[in-house]
Design a protein that fits this description.
Helices cover 42% and strands 13% of the residues. With 273 residues, it is an alpha/beta fold.
């Protein structure tokens, strides 16, 4: 069974669907997106997958769990709640993330703390809880060890000055990924996936998004489904730990001076007045 944080929408939803299609029972974590989370759970519990037995009445394929991961008490309570309802957790995907813009000119302790709690502290506490909950119990999947996959960011391999607090929090998580892999071996593997330009957001227009994709060395970024397949690969690869897959169309090779959203705006012609 796998716990996916921030699983109700976007990349988290794609990861939940990919792992469920591979036979994993999925605990769907959300914070505010109760409707999409419950809809995803209903879908995962209703769809029959060929060759997979129906779950026992006390073992649903999926269930939703609400928690504000920036709250330490709520974060610490999440894994025990999932274990009580769904049984032992074999995998954790730390997908939930805070992404707010700041830079060196407007950096503050408050901004750093918000990002640290959500993007660094929460994944660390959840990985700790998974490792402790698993103990030395016999494995339920090939390879034997539990596994944690942290969602990072390609920009850690091609630093630019935008989104300072977010970048620092993800940089800390990347270092923590390697440290935890060393600490928790051989019973828990810890890996990372670093997406590049993947989904549009409120910060980008459709034209800017298309331009940003074309600015990568491969002329395309990644889709949410490709990120999900990379996560599944790591979850199901028992010899991989302490490393990160960059799934970004080569974006990290481009050496961009600013975040891609700003570069795309510079490339596009100015809108008519």
């Amino acid at each position: 069974m796998v716990l996916v944080t921030g699983a109700a929408q976007r990349i988290g939803r794609a990861i939940a669907l990919e792992l469920a299609a591979a036979g994993w029972r999925v605990a769907v974590h959300y914070r505010h997106s109760a409707g999409p989370a419950q809809a995803l759970v209903q879908h995962l519990n209703a769809v029959a997958r060929p060759g997979l037995p129906l779950p026992l009445p006390r073992e649903p394929r999926s269930a939703a769990f609400c928690a504000d991961l920036a709250d330490e008490a709520a974060c610490r309570a999440l894994v025990p709640a999932v274990v009580r309802e769904m049984g032992r957790i074999d995998a954790l995907v730390n997908n939930a993330s805070l992404f707010e813009h700041d830079n060196a000119a407007d950096f503050s302790f408050a901004a750093m703390e918000r990002h640290w709690r959500a993007n660094t502290g929460a994944p660390l506490l959840l990985a700790q809880a998974l490792h402790e909950a698993r103990g030395h119990a016999p494995p339920r999947h090939e390879g034997g060890s539990a596994v944690v996959v942290n969602l990072l960011d390609q920009k850690l391999w091609a630093i630019n000055p935008d989104h300072l607090s977010y970048t620092l929090s993800k940089a800390a998580l990347e270092v923590a990924t390697r440290m935890l892999a060393m600490t928790f071996a051989p019973h828990t593997r810890v890996c990372g996936v670093a997406p590049g330009i993947t989904l549009t957001s409120s910060e980008m227009s459709a034209a800017e998004f298309d331009t940003a994709h074309r600015m990568t060395p491969l002329g395309r970024g990644a889709s949410a489904d490709e990120i999900a397949r990379a996560v599944r690969f790591l979850v199901e690869s028992p010899s991989i730990t302490g490393t990160t897959l960059l799934v970004d169309g080569g974006q990290h090779l481009a050496g961009q001076a600013r975040d891609v959203v700003f570069l795309a705006r510079e490339v596009l012609p100015a809108p008519p007045r």
